Amino acid sequence: MIVRTLAEILGTEREVHAPNWVSRRLLLKQDGMGFSMHETTIHPGTETRMWYRHHLEAVYCVAGEGELEVIADGSVHPIAPGTLYALDRHDRHILRARTELRLVCVFNPPLTGRETHDKDGAYPIEDEATAS
Ligand code: 9YT
Questions:
Q1: Residue 104, ligand 1, Cβ within 6 A
Q2: Which of 6, 40, 68, 95 to mutate to test the pocket of ligand 1 (most atoms within 8 A of CB)?
Q3: What is the mean pLDDT of the chain?
Q4: Looking at the predicted structure, is the pLDDT value of residue 119 above 90?
Q5: Is the minimum distance from the CB of 101 to ligand 1 under 6 angstroms?
Q6: 82 pLDDT exceeds 80?
Q7: For residues 26 and 96, is the Cβ–Cβ distance under 8 A?
Q8: If I label 114, which of 20, 36, 84, 126 is the partner at 20 to 30 A Cα–Cα?
Q9: Per-residue pLDDT tens for 26-47?
Q10: Is pLDDT of 124 > 50?
C-alpha cells in the first residue's frame, strides 16, 4: 500500500518545474501502478503547446479557469473545475490558463521522474531518455 501526501513531495525530486507549470508527481513508474499521477499547477496567463507523441494523458481540472485548443480541428474547449480531457489520439493541443489551473494528470505509460517538455511539447519514452 502506498500512502503519500502532496506535502511530502514539495521540494523533492518529485517536484518538477517548467517555465509554465510545476508538476508534483504523486505516482511514478517505480511505484508499479502502470500509470503515473501528478498534480500539475499551470501558471496564470500562460499558453503551453503540447504533443505527447509517446504517452496517453488524461487531465482533470480541480481549480482555475482556462481553455484547451485542439490543433487538428481548431476546436476550443473551456477548462474549469469538473472538466476532464483525455488525449486519446496523442492530440496536439494548446492549453491556456486564464487563472492558475490545478490539474490532476495521469500518464500511460508512466513517467519515470524528471521529464520536462522537449521542443514539441512531448516527453521522451524511456528508451530515448536513457539513450540521451
Ligand atoms: C496538462 C499538462 O500536460 N501539463 C504539463 C505537465 C504535465 N501534466 C506533468 O508532467 O505533470
A1: no
A2: 40
A3: 93
A4: no
A5: no
A6: yes
A7: no
A8: 84
A9: 999 999 999 999 999 999 999 9
A10: yes
- The per-residue b/e assignment along 2-36, b for 16 or more CB within 10 angstroms, e otherwise, is eeeeeeebeeeebebeeebbebbbbbbbeeeeebb
**22 vs 44: CA distance, rounded Å:** 12
DSSP states of 21-55: EEEEEEE-GGGTSSSEEEEEEEPTT-EEEE--TT-
- Does the beta carbon of 21 lie inside 6 Å of ligand 1? yes
Query: What is the residue whose three cell numbers read 496536439?
Result: 92
Please report the atom of ligand 1 found closest to the CA of residue 25: 11
Q: pTM for the whole thing?
A: 0.92
Q: Which one of 55, 90, 105 would you pick to mutate in the ligand 1 pocket, going by the greatest count of ligand atoms within 8 A of its CB?
A: 105
Name 27's bridge partners.
Answer: 37
The strand pairing partners of 41, in sequence order, are 22, 102
Ligand 1 close to Cβ of residue 95 (< 6 A):
yes
DSSP-assigned beta bridge partners for residue 104: 39, 60
Complete domains list, the chain, with CATH: 13-112+123-131 (2.60.120.10)
